[in-house]
């Protein structure tokens, strides 16, 4: 939970994606590398991602462009290393892209409303985190003096509750076995 709340989720909330209009894709070819992708039979890229340097551009109509610290894939899109997914975090580069707002179809931070993947990701990992927290609280209750005192008074009555708490924990673990590969390995 600590890693999710203090490292992974905030990092996504500060990440930015701009979907380029089809009519402007050629203008941003140096960042997208679509000619390279089409030659390899891969689908074209329509989104440029990175860290937004001028956050006020999201809400201020007077600012006419987004200033983005590019993700590595967009600094050298013809590099064959960039054709495959990267499982480890790769920090943004120092290369800056200036993208005209007029050329952007939609631009948001990587929040649940950005796309279906992030909506599903935050929902599933958030629910899983809440279930982990619930299981931890139940175990803490059983280990605290009040819970252990109740157990010592009537062990036959409470043995089932301890067992059910253990089963719940195993269920949460089983769910994680499916959630982890789905969101982190695919």
What does this structure look like?
The protein is an alpha+beta fold. It has two domains: 15-109, no CATH class; 116-185. 51% of the residues lie in helices and 16% in strands. The chain has seven helices and five strands. The chain has helices at residues 2-13, 29-32, 34-39, 72-75, 116-143, 145-153, 155-185; strands at residues 15-20, 47-52, 65-70, 96-100, 104-109. The protein has a five-stranded antiparallel beta sheet with strand order 4-3-2-1-5. Helix 5 packs antiparallel against helix 7 and helix 6 crosses helix 7. It is elongated and about 75 Å long. The mean pLDDT is 86.
How many strand segments? 5
Distance between the termini: 21 Å
Order of strands across the widest beta sheet?
4-3-2-1-5
Helical fraction: 40-55%
Q: Could you give a quick summary of the protein structure above?
A:
The chain has 186 residues and is α+β, with helices and mostly antiparallel strands. It contains 7 helices and 5 strands, in the order H-E-H-H-E-E-H-E-E-H-H-H.
Topology summary:
Layout: H1 2-13, E1 15-20, H2 29-32, H3 34-39, E2 47-52, E3 65-70, H4 72-75, E4 96-100, E5 104-109, H5 116-143, H6 145-153, H7 155-185
Antiparallel strand pairs: 1-2, 1-5, 2-3, 3-4
Helix pairs in contact: 5-7, 6-7
């Amino acid at each position: 939970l600590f890693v999710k709340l203090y490292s992974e989720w905030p990092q996504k909330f500060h990440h930015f994606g701009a979907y380029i209009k089809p009519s402007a894709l050629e203008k941003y070819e140096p960042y997208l590398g679509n000619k390279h992708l089409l030659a390899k039979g891969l689908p074209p890229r329509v989104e440029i991602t990175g860290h937004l340097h001028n956050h006020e551009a999201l809400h201020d109509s007077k600012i006419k462009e987004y200033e983005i610290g590019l993700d590595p894939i967009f600094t050298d899109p013809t590099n064959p290393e960039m054709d495959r997914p990267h499982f480890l975090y790769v920090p943004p580069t120092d290369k800056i892209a200036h993208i005209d707002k007029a050329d952007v179809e939609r631009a948001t931070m990587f929040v649940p409303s950005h796309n279906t993947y992030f909506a599903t990701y935050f929902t599933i990992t958030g629910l899983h985190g809440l279930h982990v927290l619930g299981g931890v609280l139940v175990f803490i209750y059983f280990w605290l003096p009040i819970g252990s005192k109740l157990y010592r008074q009537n062990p036959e009555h409470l043995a089932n509750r301890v067992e059910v708490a253990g089963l719940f924990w195993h269920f949460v673990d089983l769910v994680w076995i499916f959630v982890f590969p789905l969101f982190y390995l695919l």
